[in-house]
Recover the amino acids of this structure.
């Protein structure tokens, strides 16, 4: 496959390298199948991977397996992780060509990188996405999209503004059992929807703001603390902070159980409810559940106790219900809704990654756009604010503000630390 | 996936968090309720780093005008400036903006960039003049940040400043300003200032601007100036730029506008094939029924790309009246059209579609009938089972096969007689096999209600039919289906006896346990093997711990060969009790089955360790015993892994 000239012309960086682009120079692209075909490495879509923890390594495998991509660069603030990632890529291609970076800006500056996979900690998802969009890259970004609501709003706005393709790593939108459950809800087979149940990640700590004792800073080449902190407020280093188990419930860097799984499960509820471009209007707590109610009375319920492995959801309507999760098991009432359906378990990203790459080629929008993922994580953020303040919230999904609650509104944003900006 | 694996998946996931949230000895600190006076006291008197940073965070949440002067005092401070901005940025009071504007002209470096960002987020129109001046800075970062902030402010003043700077600047600074103008226009559209935004977009659409800027402007203009949108999108659809055509497809789908669909439909004839296909695709995504007739007409278009786009679009816009047309395409000899029509039939959503598809089968050719049945199957249409039963008698073999395939997963008691009749009539081996599979599926769903039909059929059945019926009885299970299978299994050797023995060994319900136990006691090899295998399988599957223990103890006594002992020992691994551990221990030093006993004990230990302190004690004891007795390094590692989970 020859990378089309129009594809390269899409980026800001290539414009800067050759500022003579006009529409007249465009060629008619071949069909998608031929675009996917195996190509020489130099002709493939160049991929940069930013964030080489467990998730980054796993999703990178999906990019490696594609016939029309070439992973050209990896980046991590941890030396150990970025070198392991480079070794993996080099072993896959049988060469030493993959470059390893501490600073993701070096990847964004490269004209041979067309798209980036962002698999950093939650703290960086929006910030790197914004920088990548400004650099003209298309983006596959892991969930959750943001730590504060206004961050992902900025990401959702910048993508259409700069013509970028963005796919959030909410890959359950590309997995058969979840798609089928959503189909049942959207096609009216459950009747008028009443309740959408979304599992929170069980076993996580409540959001905390713990401060740990200062420790000597490692050399930047071993671990770049300032780059790890990114847009969040600076604090003295402690080796515990950047561990997954610590940061995932810390107020500066994540939204704990609600955003951890809610970014998937609420996302599926939003999809099932055909509310991808809006959200609930009221939030409150009921027993140990967090409720968001849409203006038509449908409720999204963040809770624990659903069945079928991780990230389960349950959609209830007036005429039936369906429940499924990562085990692939699915139950419904009436049973006839399931027919002969059977599904494999697991939550592999392969289909979602391929769908993203196809959209990069065709410029059609993927299923998990920045706007869609932002709306889903918005529900989680407002639920978290409701939880933090200990009071119900009235929410205006059009203006994305809490009605009559300035204190809550202040928690929707966080001021980025220079040099990063929204 | 079964529930055990399901639970395991969850457990694996939980391990990520439960095991690593906080290091030992650390206490999670929840944020205290915000208190402005207390926070101000800390900032004014000074405190350690933790107290200070916490005070800034509290003021971010509840600070009033009283806090502003104190916070302003930290702006420009190397250590605290960002946290002061962090607190001031979201404050909905003018004093906060004034403090930031004042500091903007005084501080430099990163603190200045923080302040510029905050003024942009606050959309502070009174900062426009100062920010405009900064756009001319030689410091590229500073100039870019100032432009970005002006874009966010998106006022008449800020747009004027950006526009002027845009005219004077050269790339790359010009690009930064272009992006800022795009953001300003996007915000203005959201605020209903479409006319102002449209001017910005029109200027950015100039030929010398880079493609991605023009694309952004092209998209934005569709929302800023909806009146002119259809004309522009139609022009783009008919143009030779694929990217703009694709963007236009999405915009046709997303932008509203009363009557716009009519404009798009009217334009269809004016477009060349590619543009026409793109517009049809766009109309299908737009989902306005007003486009239906035009799309239906395009199915007859001579250009294949247009025809396929129209067939595909009927999946979104088609009605029950289009079913006949789409069904006829399923077997019209054009593979692409057939695949597209099939996909459209599956996607169509209105409530009367299933009935219409089912009704279309009566008039259809045999090839179409088979495909229609398959479509209804995929659609999970409730009427598909009854329809398939009806077409089991079709004159065409493909239709009969399609019907049987449908019944495998959909048929129930109501279809049992017809399926059995079809099996009796199926002489072709392929069809006979398909009918037997259908009978299995139908019998399973019919359950015991099907026995009055299945059991009498055994009388006088030939060998092939008898085998199929025995298999079907195995699907039904239960006490009432068991006797004839048990009798056949213990009869003289024959193909039917062999199948009956296998079916008996796989019997799904505990009713077969006594029969299987008797077989296990047999000295005849085949009977004994099937008996003990089936008996242990049932023991493994039962959730009654006491019954399971008794069955396994009995099975162990009957297990003659080491392979049989392996089977039983492995099943003990599913019994998480002390009795299970006691039963396994004597076998640990047995050279032939020691490893299996050890692995089962490890599995039991892994389960009982989750049952409180007593469970942990029992688990540790079992694992110590295993490690003391085994010489196998793999077994030792497995035991250690479970031991590690208890640390």
């Amino acid at each position: 496959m020859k990378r089309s000239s129009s594809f390269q012309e899409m980026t800001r960086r290539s414009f800067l390298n050759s500022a003579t682009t006009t529409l007249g120079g465009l060629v008619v692209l071949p069909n998608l199948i031929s675009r996917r075909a195996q190509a020489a490495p130099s002709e493939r879509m160049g991929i940069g991977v930013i964030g080489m923890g467990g998730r980054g390594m796993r999703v990178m495998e999906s990019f490696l397996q594609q016939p029309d991509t070439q992973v050209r660069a990896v980046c991590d603030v941890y030396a150990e992780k970025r070198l392991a990632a480079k070794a993996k890529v080099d072993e896959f291609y049988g060469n030493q060509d993959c470059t390893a970076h501490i600073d993701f800006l070096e990847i964004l500056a490269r004209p041979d990188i067309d798209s980036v996979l962002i698999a950093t900690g939650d703290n960086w998802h929006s910030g790197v996405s914004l920088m990548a969009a400004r650099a003209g890259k298309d983006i596959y970004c892991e969930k959750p999209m943001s730590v504060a609501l206004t961050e992902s709003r900025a990401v959702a706005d910048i993508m259409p503004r700069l013509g970028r393709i963005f796919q959030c790593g909410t890959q359950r939108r590309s997995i058969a059992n979840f798609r089928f459950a959503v189909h049942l809800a959207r096609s009216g087979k459950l009747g008028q929807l009443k309740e959408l149940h979304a599992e929170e990640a069980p076993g996580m700590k409540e959001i905390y703001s713990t401060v740990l004792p200062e420790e000597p800073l490692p050399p930047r080449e071993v671990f770049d603390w300032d780059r790890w902190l990114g847009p969040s407020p600076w604090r003295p280093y402690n080796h515990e902070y950047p561990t997954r188990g610590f940061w995932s419930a810390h107020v500066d860097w994540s939204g704990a159980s609600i955003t951890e799984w809610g970014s998937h499960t609420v996302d599926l509820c939003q999809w099932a409810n055909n509310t991808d471009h809006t959200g609930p209007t009221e939030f409150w707590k009921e027993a140990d559940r967090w409720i968001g109610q849409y203006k038509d009375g449908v409720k999204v319920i963040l809770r624990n106790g659903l069945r079928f492995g991780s990230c389960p959801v349950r959609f209830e309507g007036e005429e039936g219900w369906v429940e499924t999760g990562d085990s692939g098991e699915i139950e419904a009432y009436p049973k006839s809704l399931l027919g002969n359906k059977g599904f494999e378990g697991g939550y592999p990203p392969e289909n979602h990654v391929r769908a993203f790459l196809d959209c990069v080629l065709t410029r059609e929008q993927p299923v998990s756009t920045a706007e869609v993922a932002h709306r889903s994580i918005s529900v989680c953020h407002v639920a978290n604010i409701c939880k933090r303040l200990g009071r119900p919230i009235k929410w205006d999904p059009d203006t994305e503000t809490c009605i009559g609650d300035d204190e809550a509104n202040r928690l929707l944003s966080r001021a980025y630390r220079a040099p990063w900006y929204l | 996936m079964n529930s055990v694996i399901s639970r395991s998946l969850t457990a694996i996931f939980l391990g990520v968090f439960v095991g690593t949230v906080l290091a030992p000895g650390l206490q999670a600190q929840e944020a205290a309720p915000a208190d402005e006076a207390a926070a101000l006291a800390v900032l004014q008197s000074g405190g350690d780093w933790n107290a200070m940073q916490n005070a800034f965070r509290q003021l971010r949440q509840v600070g009033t005008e009283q806090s502003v002067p104190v916070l302003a005092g930290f702006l420009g401070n190397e250590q605290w400036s960002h946290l002061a901005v962090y607190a001031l940025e979201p404050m909905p009071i003018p004093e906060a903006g004034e403090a930031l504007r004042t500091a903007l002209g005084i501080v430099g470096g990163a603190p200045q960039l923080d302040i510029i960002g905050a003024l942009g987020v606050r959309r502070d129109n009174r900062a426009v003049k100062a920010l405009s001046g900064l756009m001319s800075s030689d410091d590229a970062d500073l100039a870019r940040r100032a432009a970005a902030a002006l874009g966010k402010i998106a006022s008449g003043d800020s747009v004027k400043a950006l526009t002027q700077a845009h005219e004077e600047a050269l790339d790359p600074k010009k690009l930064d300003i272009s992006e800022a103008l795009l953001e300003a226009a996007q915000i203005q559209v959201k605020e209903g200032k479409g006319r102002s935004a449209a001017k910005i977009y029109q200027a950015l659409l100039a030929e010398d601007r880079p493609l991605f800027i023009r694309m952004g402007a092209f998209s934005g203009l569709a929302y800023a100036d909806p009146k002119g949108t259809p004309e522009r999108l139609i022009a783009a659809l008919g143009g030779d730029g694929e990217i703009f055509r694709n963007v236009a497809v999405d915009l046709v789908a997303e932008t509203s506008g009363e009557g716009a669909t009519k404009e798009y439909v009217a334009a269809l004839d004016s477009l060349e094939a590619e543009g026409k296909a793109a517009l049809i695709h766009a109309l299908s995504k737009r989902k306005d029924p007003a486009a239906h007739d035009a799309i239906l007409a395009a199915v007859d278009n001579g250009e294949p790309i247009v025809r396929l786009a129209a067939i595909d679009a009927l999946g979104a816009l088609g009605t029950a009246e289009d079913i006949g047309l789409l069904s006829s395409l399923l077997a019209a000899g054009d593979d692409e059209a057939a695949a597209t029509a099939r996909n459209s039939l599956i996607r169509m959503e209105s409530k009367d579609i299933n009935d219409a598809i089912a009704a279309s089968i009566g008039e259809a050719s045999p090839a179409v009938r088979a495909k229609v049945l398959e479509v209804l199957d995929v659609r999970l249409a409730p009427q598909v089972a009854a329809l398939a039963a009806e077409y089991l008698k079709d004159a065409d073999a493909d239709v009969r096969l399609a019907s049987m395939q449908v019944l495998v997963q959909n048929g129930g008691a109501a279809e049992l007689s017809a399926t059995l009749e079809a099996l009796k009539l199926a002489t072709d081996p392929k069809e006979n096999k398909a009918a037997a599979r259908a009978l299995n599926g139908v019998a399973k769903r019919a359950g015991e209600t099907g026995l009055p039909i299945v059991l009498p059929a055994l009388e006088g059945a030939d060998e092939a039919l008898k085998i199929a019926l025995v298999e079907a009885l195995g699907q039904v299970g239960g006490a009432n289906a068991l006797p004839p299978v048990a009798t056949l299994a213990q009869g003289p050797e024959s193909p039917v006896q062999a199948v009956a023995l296998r079916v008996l060994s796989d019997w799904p319900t505990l009713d077969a346990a006594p029969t299987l136990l008797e077989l296990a006691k047999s000295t005849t090899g085949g009977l004994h093997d099937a008996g003990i295998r089936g008996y242990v399988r049932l023991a493994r599957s039962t959730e009654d711990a006491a019954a399971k223990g008794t069955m396994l103890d009995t099975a162990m006594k009957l297990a003659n060969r080491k392979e049989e002992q392996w089977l039983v020992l492995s099943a003990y691994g599913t019994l998480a009790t002390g009795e299970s551990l006691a039963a396994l221990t004597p076998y640990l030093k047995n050279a032939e089955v020691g490893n299996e006993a050890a692995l089962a004990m490890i599995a039991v230990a892994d389960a009982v360790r989750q049952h409180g302190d007593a469970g942990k004690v029992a688990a540790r004891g079992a694992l110590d015993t295993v490690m003391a007795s085994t010489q196998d390094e793999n077994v030792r590692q497995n035991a250690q892994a479970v031991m590690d989970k208890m640390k």
